[in-house]
Amino acid sequence: MWFRNLQLYRLGRAFGLSAESLDRRLRNQAFQGCSRMDLAASGWVPPLGRHGEQLVHAANGYFMICSRKAEKIIPASVVKQLLDDRVAEVAAAESRDVYRREKQRMKDEIMVDLLPRALTRHTDLFAYIDTRAGYVVVDTPTSSRAEDLISNIRSSLGSFKATPVQVRKSCMNTMTGWLKGERLPRGLELGDECELAHTDPGNGVVNCKHQDLSTSEVRNHIKGGKYATRLAIRWKERLSCVLHDDLSIRRLRFEDVIREAEGGTDDDDPASRFDLDFSLMTLELADFLPQLFKAFGGEETGEQAA
């Protein structure tokens, strides 16, 4: 289970639940699926999918969880077409106009008719809790989905204080400095991609891909008033990613030197492979993330973050 995108949260207090206790709490909101008349439903499912029963997969103090959302698929174009047809029938049969309130009632009736027959789409969202360092790491490119998962944890536990990680230095200014030639922290090096934006939206955005970022061309854009809002970096030849100015991480990739360890497990045992991948990933991130935060002056904590 290799994460591809990271939204990072700091726990407000030490996580005191064991894996077994957390599992029991999550079972109160285990995923049940959509009923015939539900438009959507959500709940917790085993991270191992059909290969597991526990709602928490624990390894070395890291707790993996998975939230599933089910949504009925009812295309708006289908609803509109059925509504237009029904409105036209009533108007023709009764020789009158159909007004807004009646149209809304018709639309509601159409939705009620379509719901039991609609297809259902399932979306899984994975995260893990680092109980030692006090982080929550959510595998999604969007902060809104991460916030939904944090809210679901809070709903299941009654109380769960977790806020996005805050650092002391501006990510945008620091990444821009690296492109200007400032030395990167030990272990970090520039990738081959960046996005440069001007503080005035009218002055445009420049995207550089598959390019040497140390060239004068990139620096000329910075001299013109643009700042780095997205930057590809590599770390110790072990992983690479695209770092955004809100400290979110996209397109995370673990290098072959890490993945080669997968060869030591049984391909026919999904549970063993999942456990090995999870252990490898969390150990690498436990080493990488503190160094990344340190590159931006370290974390803001307590009253500083507020």
Tell me about this structure.
The protein is α+β, with helices and mostly antiparallel strands and 306 residues long. The protein contains 8 helices and 12 strands. The protein has 3 domains: 7-74 and 117-164, no CATH class; 76-107; 171-295, no CATH class. Strands 1, 2, 3, 4, 5, 6 and 7 form a 7-stranded antiparallel sheet that branches. Strands 9-8-10-11-12 form a 5-stranded antiparallel sheet. A hairpin with a 4-residue loop joins strand 5 and strand 6. The longest helix is centred in the last third of the chain and has 26 residues, at 270-295. The radius of gyration is 24 Å and the shape is globular. The model has no long low-confidence stretch (mean pLDDT 92).
Strand-pairing-aware structural class: alpha+beta
Biggest pleated-sheet summary: 7 strands, antiparallel
Radius of gyration using CA atoms only: 24 Å
Number of domain modules: 3
Summarize the helix and strand pattern as letters: EHEEEHHEEHEHEEHEEEHH
Q: For the terminal residues, how far apart are their CA atoms?
A: 34 Å
Number of strands: 12
Mean pLDDT: 92
Question: Would you summarize the structure shown here?
Answer:
By secondary structure, this protein is an alpha+beta fold. 35% of the residues lie in helices and 27% in strands.
Offer a few descriptive terms:
alpha+beta, 306 residues, 35% helix, single chain, 8 helices, 3 domains
